[in-house]
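Hypothesis: this fold can be encoded by more than one sequence.
Test: take the C-alpha coordinates below, design a sequence, compare later.
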Protein backbone atom coordinates (compact mmCIF):
# COMPACT_ATOMS: atom_id res chain seq x y z
CA UNK A 1 0.00 0.00 0.00
CA UNK A 2 1.03 3.59 -0.50
CA UNK A 3 -0.31 7.08 0.19
CA UNK A 4 -2.19 9.16 -2.35
CA UNK A 5 0.70 11.63 -2.43
CA UNK A 6 3.17 8.86 -3.22
CA UNK A 7 0.91 7.52 -5.97
CA UNK A 8 0.80 11.04 -7.41
CA UNK A 9 4.62 11.23 -7.41
CA UNK A 10 4.95 7.83 -9.04
CA UNK A 11 2.15 8.47 -11.53
CA UNK A 12 0.12 5.40 -10.57
CA UNK A 13 -3.39 4.72 -9.27
CA UNK A 14 -5.09 2.22 -7.00
CA UNK A 15 -5.17 -0.42 -9.73
CA UNK A 16 -1.41 -0.45 -10.13
CA UNK A 17 0.47 -3.39 -8.61
CA UNK A 18 1.76 -2.02 -5.30
CA UNK A 19 4.52 -4.62 -4.96
CA UNK A 20 8.29 -4.64 -5.09
CA UNK A 21 8.08 -5.85 -8.69
CA UNK A 22 5.64 -3.06 -9.51
CA UNK A 23 8.02 -0.54 -7.96
CA UNK A 24 11.01 -1.98 -9.86
CA UNK A 25 9.05 -1.59 -13.10
CA UNK A 26 8.92 2.18 -12.50
CA UNK A 27 12.71 2.57 -12.45
CA UNK A 28 14.13 4.38 -15.48
CA UNK A 29 15.88 1.96 -17.90
CA UNK A 30 19.15 3.88 -17.60
CA UNK A 31 19.11 3.42 -13.79
CA UNK A 32 18.06 -0.23 -13.73
CA UNK A 33 21.60 -1.64 -13.55
CA UNK A 34 22.62 0.83 -10.84
CA UNK A 35 19.54 0.00 -8.75
CA UNK A 36 20.05 -3.75 -9.16
CA UNK A 37 23.65 -3.39 -7.98
CA UNK A 38 22.54 -1.36 -4.95
CA UNK A 39 19.90 -3.92 -4.00
CA UNK A 40 22.09 -6.99 -4.44
CA UNK A 41 25.45 -5.72 -3.17
CA UNK A 42 24.45 -3.32 -0.43
CA UNK A 43 20.85 -3.80 0.71
CA UNK A 44 20.84 -7.62 0.51
CA UNK A 45 24.57 -8.32 0.57
CA UNK A 46 25.43 -6.03 3.50
CA UNK A 47 21.99 -5.67 5.13
CA UNK A 48 22.13 -1.91 4.61
CA UNK A 49 19.10 0.37 4.54
CA UNK A 50 17.82 1.29 1.11
CA UNK A 51 19.03 4.81 0.28
CA UNK A 52 19.29 5.96 -3.31
CA UNK A 53 18.53 8.79 -5.72
CA UNK A 54 17.19 7.47 -9.01
CA UNK A 55 14.81 8.23 -11.87
CA UNK A 56 11.38 6.81 -12.49
CA UNK A 57 9.11 6.83 -15.54
CA UNK A 58 5.53 7.67 -14.57
CA UNK A 59 3.06 5.22 -16.22
CA UNK A 60 0.22 7.76 -16.39
CA UNK A 61 2.03 10.41 -18.48
CA UNK A 62 5.46 8.96 -19.38
CA UNK A 63 7.14 11.77 -17.42
CA UNK A 64 10.58 11.27 -15.93
CA UNK A 65 11.13 12.31 -12.34
CA UNK A 66 13.99 12.10 -9.90
CA UNK A 67 13.15 10.58 -6.53
CA UNK A 68 15.02 9.77 -3.34
CA UNK A 69 14.10 6.49 -1.69
CA UNK A 70 14.79 5.76 1.97
CA UNK A 71 13.68 2.61 3.71
CA UNK A 72 14.03 -1.09 4.37
CA UNK A 73 13.48 -3.94 1.95
CA UNK A 74 12.16 -7.20 3.40
CA UNK A 75 12.58 -10.66 1.91
CA UNK A 76 10.46 -13.81 2.01
CA UNK A 77 11.53 -17.26 3.17
CA UNK A 78 13.27 -17.89 -0.16
CA UNK A 79 15.29 -14.66 0.08
CA UNK A 80 13.27 -12.83 -2.59
CA UNK A 81 12.35 -9.18 -2.13
CA UNK A 82 8.79 -9.03 -0.89
CA UNK A 83 8.15 -5.71 0.84
CA UNK A 84 9.48 -2.15 0.78
CA UNK A 85 8.91 0.00 3.85
CA UNK A 86 10.01 3.61 3.66
CA UNK A 87 9.53 6.94 1.94
CA UNK A 88 10.00 8.31 -1.55
CA UNK A 89 10.53 12.02 -2.09
CA UNK A 90 10.28 13.89 -5.40
CA UNK A 91 13.66 15.67 -5.88
CA UNK A 92 13.22 16.55 -9.57
CA UNK A 93 13.48 20.31 -9.01
CA UNK A 94 16.71 19.96 -7.03
CA UNK A 95 18.27 17.62 -9.56
CA UNK A 96 17.36 19.97 -12.40
CA UNK A 97 18.93 22.87 -10.52
CA UNK A 98 22.06 20.79 -9.89
CA UNK A 99 22.24 19.84 -13.57
CA UNK A 100 21.85 23.48 -14.60
CA UNK A 101 24.55 24.56 -12.17
CA UNK A 102 26.84 21.77 -13.36
CA UNK A 103 26.31 22.82 -16.97
CA UNK A 104 27.09 26.44 -16.10
CA UNK A 105 30.26 25.39 -14.32
CA UNK A 106 31.32 23.23 -17.24
CA UNK A 107 30.78 26.12 -19.66
CA UNK A 108 32.71 28.43 -17.35
CA UNK A 109 35.54 25.92 -17.08
CA UNK A 110 35.59 25.59 -20.88
CA UNK A 111 35.83 29.37 -21.19
CA UNK A 112 38.56 29.61 -18.56
CA UNK A 113 40.55 26.70 -19.98
CA UNK A 114 40.77 28.25 -23.44
CA UNK A 115 41.11 31.89 -22.40
CA UNK A 116 44.18 33.60 -23.93
CA UNK A 117 45.22 34.82 -20.47
CA UNK A 118 46.41 33.33 -17.19
CA UNK A 119 43.17 32.87 -15.24
CA UNK A 120 42.30 30.63 -12.30
CA UNK A 121 39.15 30.22 -10.23
CA UNK A 122 39.18 29.13 -6.59
CA UNK A 123 36.53 28.22 -4.00
CA UNK A 124 36.38 29.64 -0.47
CA UNK A 125 39.07 27.22 0.67
CA UNK A 126 41.35 28.37 -2.19
CA UNK A 127 40.96 25.04 -3.97
CA UNK A 128 41.22 25.10 -7.76
CA UNK A 129 37.89 25.08 -9.59
CA UNK A 130 39.33 25.95 -12.99
CA UNK A 131 42.48 27.23 -14.67
CA UNK A 132 43.39 28.34 -18.17
CA UNK A 133 46.07 26.66 -20.23
CA UNK A 134 48.13 29.86 -20.00
CA UNK A 135 47.94 29.73 -16.18
CA UNK A 136 49.09 26.09 -16.07
CA UNK A 137 51.98 26.86 -18.44
CA UNK A 138 53.06 29.98 -16.56
CA UNK A 139 53.30 28.20 -13.23
CA UNK A 140 54.70 24.91 -14.63
CA UNK A 141 51.55 22.99 -13.72
CA UNK A 142 50.80 21.31 -17.06
CA UNK A 143 50.17 17.61 -16.45
CA UNK A 144 49.89 18.03 -12.69
CA UNK A 145 46.76 17.34 -10.65
CA UNK A 146 45.56 20.74 -9.44
CA UNK A 147 41.76 20.76 -9.52
CA UNK A 148 40.32 20.27 -6.07
CA UNK A 149 43.72 20.95 -4.48
CA UNK A 150 44.67 24.03 -2.47
CA UNK A 151 46.49 26.82 -4.29
CA UNK A 152 48.95 26.90 -1.40
CA UNK A 153 49.60 23.18 -1.74
CA UNK A 154 50.13 23.44 -5.49
CA UNK A 155 52.37 26.55 -5.26
CA UNK A 156 53.69 26.57 -1.66
CA UNK A 157 55.87 29.66 -2.18
CA UNK A 158 52.81 31.96 -2.45
CA UNK A 159 53.87 34.96 -0.29
CA UNK A 160 51.90 36.01 2.76
CA UNK A 161 50.99 39.37 1.18
CA UNK A 162 49.12 37.51 -1.57
CA UNK A 163 47.41 35.24 0.94
CA UNK A 164 46.16 38.37 2.66
CA UNK A 165 44.89 39.66 -0.71
CA UNK A 166 43.05 36.35 -1.18
CA UNK A 167 41.42 36.72 2.26
CA UNK A 168 40.33 40.25 1.38
CA UNK A 169 38.93 39.01 -1.93
CA UNK A 170 36.94 36.30 -0.13
CA UNK A 171 35.58 39.08 2.09
CA UNK A 172 34.29 40.93 -0.98
CA UNK A 173 37.09 43.23 -2.15
CA UNK A 174 38.39 43.55 -5.70
CA UNK A 175 42.15 44.13 -5.78
CA UNK A 176 44.89 44.68 -8.34
CA UNK A 177 48.62 45.37 -8.59
CA UNK A 178 50.48 46.80 -11.57
CA UNK A 179 53.71 44.96 -10.83
CA UNK A 180 54.87 42.71 -8.02
CA UNK A 181 57.88 40.45 -7.79
CA UNK A 182 57.23 36.74 -7.36
CA UNK A 183 60.11 34.64 -6.06
CA UNK A 184 59.75 30.98 -7.08
CA UNK A 185 60.94 28.01 -5.06
CA UNK A 186 63.50 27.17 -7.77
CA UNK A 187 65.25 30.51 -7.24
CA UNK A 188 63.82 32.24 -10.33
CA UNK A 189 61.87 35.45 -10.12
CA UNK A 190 59.24 37.11 -12.24
CA UNK A 191 57.23 40.30 -12.17
CA UNK A 192 53.46 39.99 -12.35
CA UNK A 193 50.56 42.31 -12.95
CA UNK A 194 47.49 40.80 -11.30
CA UNK A 195 43.83 41.38 -10.59
CA UNK A 196 41.58 39.58 -8.15
CA UNK A 197 37.76 39.65 -8.07
CA UNK A 198 35.26 37.78 -5.88
CA UNK A 199 32.98 35.24 -7.58
CA UNK A 200 29.40 35.06 -6.35
CA UNK A 201 26.91 32.21 -6.12
CA UNK A 202 23.34 32.45 -7.38
CA UNK A 203 22.17 33.68 -3.96
CA UNK A 204 24.71 36.52 -3.98
CA UNK A 205 27.10 35.01 -1.45
CA UNK A 206 30.81 34.91 -2.23
CA UNK A 207 31.74 31.45 -3.43
CA UNK A 208 35.42 32.10 -4.13
CA UNK A 209 37.73 34.34 -6.15
CA UNK A 210 39.02 34.63 -9.69
CA UNK A 211 42.64 35.69 -10.28
CA UNK A 212 44.04 37.11 -13.53
CA UNK A 213 47.82 37.44 -13.90
CA UNK A 214 50.10 38.83 -16.60
CA UNK A 215 53.84 38.28 -16.71
CA UNK A 216 55.46 41.71 -17.12
CA UNK A 217 59.00 40.55 -16.44
CA UNK A 218 60.27 41.51 -19.90
CA UNK A 219 58.63 44.94 -19.65
CA UNK A 220 60.07 45.44 -16.17
CA UNK A 221 63.55 44.51 -17.37
CA UNK A 222 63.26 46.91 -20.31
CA UNK A 223 62.17 49.71 -17.97
CA UNK A 224 65.09 48.97 -15.65
CA UNK A 225 67.54 49.09 -18.58
CA UNK A 226 66.08 52.39 -19.73
CA UNK A 227 66.31 53.79 -16.21
CA UNK A 228 69.93 52.66 -15.97
CA UNK A 229 70.71 54.26 -19.31
CA UNK A 230 69.00 57.48 -18.19
CA UNK A 231 71.05 57.54 -14.98
CA UNK A 232 74.28 56.99 -16.91
CA UNK A 233 73.34 59.75 -19.35
CA UNK A 234 72.45 62.19 -16.58
CA UNK A 235 75.32 61.54 -14.16
CA UNK A 236 78.20 60.62 -16.50
CA UNK A 237 81.33 62.75 -16.20
CA UNK A 238 81.81 62.59 -19.96
CA UNK A 239 79.85 64.77 -22.34
CA UNK A 240 77.17 62.79 -24.18
CA UNK A 241 75.06 63.81 -27.18
CA UNK A 242 72.02 61.97 -28.47
CA UNK A 243 71.24 62.40 -32.18
CA UNK A 244 68.76 60.90 -34.62
CA UNK A 245 69.65 59.08 -37.83
CA UNK A 246 70.07 62.39 -39.67
CA UNK A 247 72.57 63.67 -37.14
CA UNK A 248 70.17 66.15 -35.55
CA UNK A 249 71.00 66.58 -31.87
CA UNK A 250 68.11 65.53 -29.66
CA UNK A 251 69.64 65.89 -26.22
CA UNK A 252 72.86 66.56 -24.35
CA UNK A 253 73.76 65.79 -20.77
CA UNK A 254 74.93 68.26 -18.17
CA UNK A 255 78.57 67.18 -18.55
CA UNK A 256 78.46 68.15 -22.24
CA UNK A 257 77.04 71.56 -21.31
CA UNK A 258 79.71 72.04 -18.65
CA UNK A 259 82.53 71.04 -20.99
CA UNK A 260 81.42 72.91 -24.15
CA UNK A 261 79.26 75.67 -22.77
CA UNK A 262 76.45 74.62 -25.14
CA UNK A 263 73.10 73.63 -23.72
CA UNK A 264 70.98 70.94 -25.32
CA UNK A 265 68.59 73.65 -26.54
CA UNK A 266 71.38 75.65 -28.25
CA UNK A 267 72.72 72.48 -29.86
CA UNK A 268 69.24 71.60 -31.11
CA UNK A 269 68.72 75.13 -32.52
CA UNK A 270 72.08 75.06 -34.33
CA UNK A 271 71.49 71.68 -35.99
CA UNK A 272 67.98 72.71 -36.99
CA UNK A 273 69.32 75.89 -38.58
CA UNK A 274 71.77 73.86 -40.63
Amino acid sequence: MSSEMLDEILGIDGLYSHTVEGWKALVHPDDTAMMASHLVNEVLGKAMRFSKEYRIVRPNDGGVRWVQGLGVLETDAQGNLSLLRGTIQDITTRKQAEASLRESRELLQLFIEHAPAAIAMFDREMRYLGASRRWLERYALVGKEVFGHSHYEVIPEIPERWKEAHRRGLAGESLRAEEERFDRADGSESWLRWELVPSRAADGTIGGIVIFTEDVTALKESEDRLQLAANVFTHASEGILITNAEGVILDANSAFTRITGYSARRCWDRTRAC
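The chain is about 40% helix and 30% strand. The CA atoms of residues 33 and 169 lie 46 Å apart.
Hypothesis status: open.
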